[in-house]
Structure formats: structure tokens, C-alpha cells
Design brief:
Layout (H helix, E strand, L loop, with lengths): L1 H62 L11 H12 L12 E8 L2 E8 L6 H20 L13 E5 L2 E7 L20 E11 L2 E12 L4 E5 L3 E3 L11
Parallel strand pairs: 4-5
Antiparallel strand pairs: 1-2, 3-4, 5-6, 6-7, 7-8
Helix pairs in contact: 1-2
Length: 240
């Protein structure tokens, strides 16, 4: 009788111990899950700070004893100088954001701005720059070719902000005019293009006629006949 009671108490203690361990494990998992967004936000903030510092250092390097020809800073020359001085260009941003050189003129003095395709605070400008950069790559890959001599690709790979992105064609225009957060039925980043063919069946030629780039904030839409539109171009009157 006494042995039986003693054995039961041990089992009960073991049961309580196992339950306590399981509870601690569950609590630990919940804490980790709660901390993940905090850590990711902290890392994102650090990357943004690092990007700002990297772009400032790059601009400082250009300003140190560099004589540019002409009246404006050439994007190619700025990139060449920075790449040589800082032993690299693609890693100026810790998040590997695509870096753009925007020439400007301050009180009659040529100047330039370095902008990151991930961290630029001007979200409309960021969308415009990323869209134009991707479109230039698509144009370079597709060109205008004799379709009777080759199979037209069902998509192209482009580089943007440290990623390789597969961009596929569409048969008709999408209704995107604003960012995906403000457009029902879309989410994240959307990139597509459209081509048309002309000529005889024995000698057809391709032509890029439509391109859309939309991120969560804004959209940039290009058409052969009327150029760039979309809400990222609302209020924009200059050139980049």
C-alpha cells in the first residue's frame, strides 16, 4: 500500500515535470516567433543606416580631387571612380540595392545624387528608377528580332536589387496604374511586358510595346506610343 502510494506520487511528479518542460518549450517558441519581426526590423534599420553611410562615402570619394569633363557628372564616370576608390560598387548597400546616379544642378554648379533602389525615401522615384532599369535590360535582351529565325523567349531574367528576377510576357495589358497595396487582386511586386509581331508569316518581327512595373507603393507603366504613365509619374516633370 505504502509502496503503491509512493510510486503514484513519483509518477505524478514526473508528469508535472514533463508538463512544465512542454510549457517552457511552448513559451520559448512563442517568444522566438514574437522576436523574429523585431530582429528583422532591427536588421533592416541597420542595413538602411549602412546604405546611407555607404552612399555618403561614395560621394565623398568622387569629390576628392576628381576632375570631371563637361558640365555634368556622367553616371559611368561616377561609377568608375567609386568602384576604383572603394573597391566595388554593387555592395555599397548592405542589402545589395541597385545604386542609381542622378545628375543635378545646384545654383549653376553640376552635382549628382546617389540613390538606392531599396532604401530611397522617395517611393515614387524609387519605383521609376527600378522600372526604367528593368525595362532597359528587357530591351537589351529582346531587341527587335526576326521571329522566323528563332524561337521567341517565354521570359527573360533581369537583375534588380541583388536579385535575379524572371519576367514573363503577357498577351494583354494589365489594369495596374497604382501600387499593389492599392490595387485589388495583386500583391507584392508585379513585372510584365508585352510584344507584338508584324510582317509575313515567313519573316515576322517582334516589337516591345508594353511594360508594367508595380511594387507595393506605386506603379510605372510604359507604352511604345505614349511613354511612361502610372501613379509614380504623377507630379513628375523632370528626367532621371
Amino acid at each position: 500500500m505504502i509502496v503503491s502510494l509512493f510510486g503514484r506520487k513519483i509518477r505524478e511528479k514526473k508528469g508535472i515535470t514533463r508538463a512544465a518542460v512542454l510549457l517552457l518549450i511552448v513559451i520559448a517558441i512563442l517568444i522566438v516567433l514574437l522576436l523574429i519581426p523585431v530582429v528583422m526590423h532591427y536588421v533592416s534599420d541597420l542595413n538602411e543606416i549602412g546604405c546611407t553611410a555607404g552612399l555618403k562615402s561614395a560621394k565623398d570619394q568622387v569629390a576628392i580631387g576628381v576632375n570631371f569633363k563637361g558640365t555634368e557628372y556622367s553616371a559611368e564616370e561616377v561609377k568608375r571612380v567609386v568602384t576604383h576608390a572603394m573597391v566595388g560598387w554593387d555592395d555599397l548597400c548592405p542589402s545589395y540595392g541597385t545604386i542609381y546616379v542622378i545628375p543635378s544642378n545646384v545654383n549653376g554648379t553640376p552635382d549628382f545624387t546617389l540613390v538606392c533602389g531599396i532604401h530611397d525615401k522617395d517611393t515614387k522615384q524609387r519605383t521609376r528608377l527600378n522600372a526604367s532599369y528593368v525595362l532597359d535590360q528587357i530591351r537589351a535582351i529582346l531587341g527587335e528580332g526576326d521571329l522566323s529565325q528563332k524561337t521567341y523567349p517565354d521570359g527573360v531574367n533581369v537583375k534588380l536589387n541583388g536579385e535575379t528576377i524572371r519576367v514573363t510576357p503577357v498577351k494583354s495589358e494589365l489594369g495596374l496604374k497604382r501600387g499593389t497595396n492599392a490595387t485589388t487582386g495583386y500583391e507584392g511586386r508585379i513585372i510584365h511586358y508585352m510584344v507584338t509581331t508584324s510582317g509575313s508569316s515567313s519573316k515576322q518581327r517582334s516589337e516591345l510595346v508594353y511594360f508594367v512595373y508595380a511594387d507595393e507603393d506605386h506603379a510605372a507603366v510604359w507604352r511604345k506610343d505614349d511613354g511612361w504613365t502610372g501613379d509614380s509619374y504623377e507630379g513628375f516633370s523632370g528626367s532621371e
